[in-house]
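Narrative progress, year one. The postdoctoral researcher (J.K.) led the effort to move from monomer predictions toward full complexes, under supervision of the PI. The following entry was the first complex the group processed end to end, covering 498 residues in total.
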Amino acid sequence: MSNTPDELKYAKTHEWVKDNGDGTVTVGISDHAQELLGDLVFVELPEAGRSVSAGDEIAVVESVKAASDIYSPLSGKILGVNEVLNDAPESINDSPYEEGWLFTLKPADNSELDALLDAAAYAKHAQDEEH
Amino acid sequence: MDKKTVLNQTHHDLDARMTPFGGWDMPVHYGSQIEEHHAIRRHAGMFDVSHMQIIDLKGSDCKRYLRHLLANDVEKLKSTGRALYSCILNSQGGVIDDLIVYFMDETWYRMVVNASTAQKDLGWIMEQVGVFGVEVLPRSDLAMIAVQGPKAIELTLPLLNEELREAAADLKPFSAVWDPSWFIARTGYTGEDGLEILLPEADCVALWNDLADAGVRPCGLGSRDTLRLEAGMNLYGQDMDETTTPLVSGLGWTVALNPEERSFIGRGALEKQKREGIPQQLVGLVLEGRGVLRSHQKLYVSDKQIGEITSGSFSPTLERSIALARIETGSPHGFDVEMRGKRLPVKVVKYPFVRHGKVVTELQSKT
């Protein structure tokens, strides 16, 4: 069973969002998503400084099996990206909620954050998709 | 409802990620596909390949029939137990399936064909029997485990009964030994040494568990695919199918046009293609930069499409992406792949890419 930390918010497209409490958020992909993808071998990260809208395709993660788009869960500006993933994409498999984070973002609209799924709702969504 | 091999519960108990494959519920990996890949290159791993279809042919006309049915020539099998890789072709020279055929005795041959094509193959094989004195016997009572890797044989031998152990210890590559219930072949689909063991379903789970206890790692179809791709082995349905001949699929070496008087199915079409010029060829590709080559990605020389990738993946041994691709004959050695809307340079290299744990292709190709 995959891990879904309670303190995070989730998008239906399997990204997690952590509110850093300083007007910024950190974004990654869920344990469930990395499990589905299998061993990751390549990550294409967004450019820092770029303005994005919620739902934009802004990154790509590729596993041995498939390439998968990453959608921005929120509108705002990309602040920084996890450069470590360029050389160690497997960090996402090993630690999807810590070392495997993808990027930080300054949200334009906090109501979007509130509209994301909580852990229980996301866990149910992920389970429904499996079956 | 997907069919289940006798090891299905074992895979679930090992927490495998399962996927439908050719009508079967099969394991993709048991945690990490890449670690499973390395286990086979460096030590030993095993696959449940019970979904593959075993077919016995019996009767006085077996050899004559197979010399008609197969593009390769079973006449090459001079002693019992020897194995041959071949395609089955339709009359247009298209590949119905690829298989391994074992020479058991003058009136008995054994074939192993792909799972996803099993029903089609059986229909075709029976249809072609016609007046030949041959009985077609699907052996759905047998399970199959492939043990592969540099330590595979050493770790498997102690688990065999004494007679088979002695015979299997002396097996030459592409040969088999058997007793009334078990059949052991020194064959595989990984580019490593190893054995494929065909055995009664009732014995299968125990052998799997004994192999696991001996340090043989359970491996899923995910690593089977990256291993065979590194080894430059074709996958039916991707690298060749009924619309492509062996000659445009890197399988010309498996077609026996000599002796000229052997009239196998598809021969006329292949001779015509040879006469008129073989329009395409299968090549190995390496992506110089980052990203992963995938099947169906298109290949371009400036704006002209010259072909497409038939099998592509990340190579765990080379730590970069490799592929097999079908391109126009006479294409240059470097061109572009279209990947997610972008053009990236790829280079043609010799394949196999990896054999017996070693990189055998030249990554710095000629320009």
